[in-house]
């Protein structure tokens, strides 16, 4: 069982390392593998911008030359040119959208995979302190929320920036005075957009936290166990109210996120839309000898460019706001990618071709929070010869399960060492440990898949005959055969179509299929009734034959035949010996046996 102080602690984001690159640099690094495709997008963006800028010049030639001079041939060519620019711009736009979306989705895939891979490497302690819904929210909501930004922002940024630059250059070529009038308010617009971006970034951070909280509630309360608990405790209405309260908070954050800076951005849009009137007014004031200083064609072409500048300029400002918002999501993802991995495989890790199964604990100390509080295990010195059986007994919280978790390196010792065939388990590869040590725990986990798929999780290339043999050894084959679809029967969410004893026997069959030389039984029968325990114990006996077995015992009747029994108290070994030896001493073990007998007699 996990200690109370571990359950009480909650995961908090790690402090940012000053040597860690800034978020913007890290985001740019995500696109580095796709430089060639992005370069092609840049070329297409440049061509599209040049083509779109050419159209106003063709329009000026039509208004100032072709129509006034009656040159129908030139008029036809210029009109055809305007149509061709529109077609070319559309084709370039489709191609750049295709490439940029593909790159964005690949980056999303890389992020999801990187976060999942990092979480797979985290120690068991991380998951005991972190709500499952929080983990799911990071992968689903946070990365999903970045999709639009990752897939389109880079292209939009380059496209709009190129269009703005090209439009400004073309406007200067037409008339520098009107250009100055058009760009007078641009610095103010940029300042407004930056303020809006910072505000939305702050709101986005709070919104994602709230979404994570809602995801955690859904995961916990709408699981099979959560539904059973809620209904049997009469708390369904209360849970619904709690969810509604969290959803209400999210509504407020969503509205604030949507409306943040909306009036300021609307003012920018109004001013930009009013610019043509300002330009016509300015052109009218620049009369020279009774005639406009700017030709009608130039003025119309300039207004067309200015309106063409309006769309990418506003989009560029909006993109800047979106980037600020997305930085909040990237920060949450980078928090997970920066998680320190406590248990790692050493570069020179060894493999064992043949594992005998000799396990030894050499003056082992362990603490869940090193440097704070009393250690969970202290000075454990213990040898389990290959092929022998060890039973670990003691009161709840004495450190029994923790001791067993050190062998497969679910946790690392904080003092001393644990060896397998004389080699420190920290010096072995993860694959070697996974092949050598099998664990059957009290809480059996089954996937929402068929019986065969659940068994094959231990050995993906197992044949049907091997699966059947493992099920027969675990005394579950007959029950599976009576199911409507046999081994193809879905087990249901977390195996709820099966009883506790049946799930335990499926877990035993899965372990038999893997055939580990060292077996950890972590209170595998403590939650079962006496008859079911007897059936499961027979399956365990078949599994344990010829293996090094470490049994964490709750019911002492299951460990009387163990070669060695140790009694833990407050993380220390206080007694050791065989069942008969320990009874003769009339110490802690004898007291536990008497208590066990009394409980069995009274049926408590």
Automatic annotation (TrEMBL):
Gene3D superfamilies: ABC transporter type 1, transmembrane domain, P-loop containing nucleotide triphosphate hydrolases. Residues 39-325 form the ABC transmembrane type-1 domain. It is found in: Cell inner membrane. SUPFAM superfamilies: ABC transporter transmembrane region, P-loop containing nucleoside triphosphate hydrolases. Belongs to the ABC transporter superfamily. Siderophore-Fe(3+) uptake transporter (SIUT) (TC 3.A.1.21) family. The keyword Transmembrane helix applies. The lineage of its organism: Bacteria, Bacillati, Actinomycetota, Actinomycetes, Kitasatosporales. Residues 359-595 form the ABC transporter domain. One of its GO terms (cellular component) is plasma membrane. Pfam families: ABC_membrane, ABC_tran. The chain crosses the membrane at residues 38-62, 74-99, 148-170, 176-193, 265-283. It comes from Actinacidiphila alni. Keywords: ATP-binding, Cell inner membrane, Cell membrane, Membrane, Nucleotide-binding, Transmembrane, Transmembrane helix, Transport. One of its GO terms (molecular function) is ATP binding. PROSITE patterns: ABC_TM1F (PS50929), ABC_TRANSPORTER_1 (PS00211), ABC_TRANSPORTER_2 (PS50893). It is a multi-pass membrane protein. This is ATP-binding cassette, subfamily B. Residues 1-20 are annotated as: Disordered.
